[in-house]
Write a structure and sequence with these properties.
It contains nine helices and no strands. The protein is mainly α. It folds into three domains: 50 residues; 61 residues; 50 residues. The longest helix is centred in the first third of the chain and has 16 residues. The termini are far apart.
Length: 214
């Protein structure tokens, strides 16, 4: 007769698991009172406004103290934002915020990146962004000519040709046989408003409609 297989050992409980367990079979967690939620929000936002220093995030300590998931802090802030509570969302910057960050960081870069004049720490505390955000935003402006996200849910962007038209004519006066790629690159460099730069096809159509040669 074949020997019977040995029974599998039962899994050991995880000592680091939050109180109340987890998973689909776990019991309902205790509902936090408004005062407890305010305490969690205040402690987490203090860390966000101080620059989100690595290793000092209070999420794990809050999870152990209140028996919640470590991601509960960000979920709480986003839920309040959807309901219109709790003030502005610290994780969502407006176009004006992004333009301000881009201008200040770019000015500092062009002036030689002097450590004593760096605006990074101040902007991190003011807007609650990571240290790597500034270089990523600068790359977006360089590649796309705008601080806006590339996903466009409102259809094609409407361009202000009173703003872009003179700039295109200036490029063509400086370089008579400038290609569409060159024109777009110059528009990206001279985009003081931080607006969406027209694509090459749109620039070509504008030149044809306005009888602009070059």
């Amino acid at each position: 007769p074949k020997p019977k297989p040995k029974p599998k050992p039962k899994p050991k409980p995880n000592p680091k698991a939050p109180p109340g367990g987890g998973g689909a079979r776990a019991g309902k967690r205790r509902r936090l009172s408004p005062a407890e939620q305010e305490d969690i929000e205040a402690r987490y936002m203090e860390w966000v406004r101080s620059g989100m220093a690595r290793g000092k995030c209070p999420s794990k300590a809050i999870a152990a103290e209140y028996g919640v998931h470590p991601n509960y802090c960000t979920a709480l802030l986003r839920r309040k934002q959807r309901k219109g509570e709790g003030g502005p969302n610290p994780f969502r910057l407006t176009m004006e915020d992004k333009a301000t960050i881009s201008k200040r960081y770019l000015s500092w870069v062009l002036e030689g990146r002097k450590p004593a004049e760096s605006p990074i720490k101040e902007l991190m505390q003011r807007y609650g962004v990571h240290r790597n955000y500034f270089a990523a935003l600068l790359r977006k402006v360089r590649d796309h000519g705008t601080v806006a996200n590339r996903s466009n849910k409102k259809g094609r962007p409407k361009h202000d040709w009173d703003y872009w038209g003179p700039k295109i004519r200036a490029v063509l006066r400086a370089k008579e046989a400038a290609s569409l790629k060159t024109i777009k690159a110059e528009l990206i460099k001279n985009n003081e408003r931080g607006a969406v730069v027209p694509c090459e096809m749109t620039i070509s159509k504008w030149k044809k409609d306005n009888h602009v040669r070059g």
